[in-house]
Amino acid sequence: MTKSHFKRGELYSVLNAMAATAIARRLQKNFRNNGIDITIEQWSILYHLWKEDGLSQQELCNRTFRDKPSITRLIHNLEKQKLVKRVSDKKDKRVNSVCLTESAKKLHDITISIANQTMDEALVNVSKEEIETVKNVLQKVYDNVTIK
């Protein structure tokens, strides 16, 4: 009887997670080196709000693939840093819109620049064709496990 071996390096999700974690760590380091005191998780919330300010907490859950308790904690911490504020919906008081403050708006350009710099560092010696291949493969994997 042969033993089955799990080859973690051959599993897309493991490789993807390793790369994503390494990029996130580098981005966090680059933020810190530039005096920006936000976490990658907080930045992901701000990123979506920069694209569309005033999203509901539920919409932020959907867009960031996080659960409600995680989003609530992240928003709470962003509020403490005076980067966002919650505004109750006029029609439904159970719904909160999350709105950027002026301080958060000022972080947009510098953090996007740092994120682009970080991706440039991560993609050294990776061709555009290789990037497209990876994107296509990961999209197919995602579709395979979510659509059905």
Write the layout of secondary structure elements.
Elements: H1 12-33, H2 40-51, E1 55-56, H3 57-64, H4 68-80, E2 84-88, E3 96-100, H5 102-122, H6 128-146
Antiparallel strand pairs: 1-3, 2-3
Helix pairs in contact: 1-5, 2-5, 3-4
Structure, briefly:
The chain contains six helices and three strands; from the N terminus they run ααβααββαα.
What does this structure look like?
This protein is mainly alpha-helical and 148 residues long. The protein has a single domain, classed as Arc Repressor Mutant, subunit A, CATH 1.10.10. Helix content is 64%, strand content 8%. It is built from six helices and three strands. The chain has helices at 12-33, 40-51, 57-64, 68-80, 102-122, 128-146; strands at residues 55-56, 84-88, 96-100. The protein has a three-stranded antiparallel beta sheet with strand order 1-3-2. Helix 1 packs across helix 5 (102-122). The longest helix has 22 residues, at 12-33.
Features:
mainly alpha, 148 residues, Arc Repressor Mutant, subunit A, three-stranded antiparallel β-sheet
Number of strands: 3
Low-confidence parts, pLDDT < 50 over ≥5 residues? none
| Mass-distribution shape | globular
CATH arch. level architecture: Orthogonal Bundle
Please describe the biggest sheet, giving its number of strands, its sense, and whether it closes into a barrel: 3 strands, antiparallel
Fraction of residues in helices?
A: 55-70%
Query: Helices and strands, in N-to-C order?
Result: HHEHHEEHH
Order of strands across the biggest sheet? Answer: 1-3-2
CATH class, anyone? Mainly Alpha
In percent, how much strand structure appears in the residues? 5-15%
What is the CATH homology-level superfamily? Winged helix-like DNA-binding domain superfamily/Winged helix DNA-binding domain
Under CATH, the topology is which? Arc Repressor Mutant, subunit A
How many whole angstroms does the radius of gyration measure?
A: 19 Å
Mean pLDDT, as a whole number?
A: 90
The total number of structural domains is: 1
How many individual helices? 6
The SS-based structural class is mainly alpha
CA-CA gap between termini: 35 Å
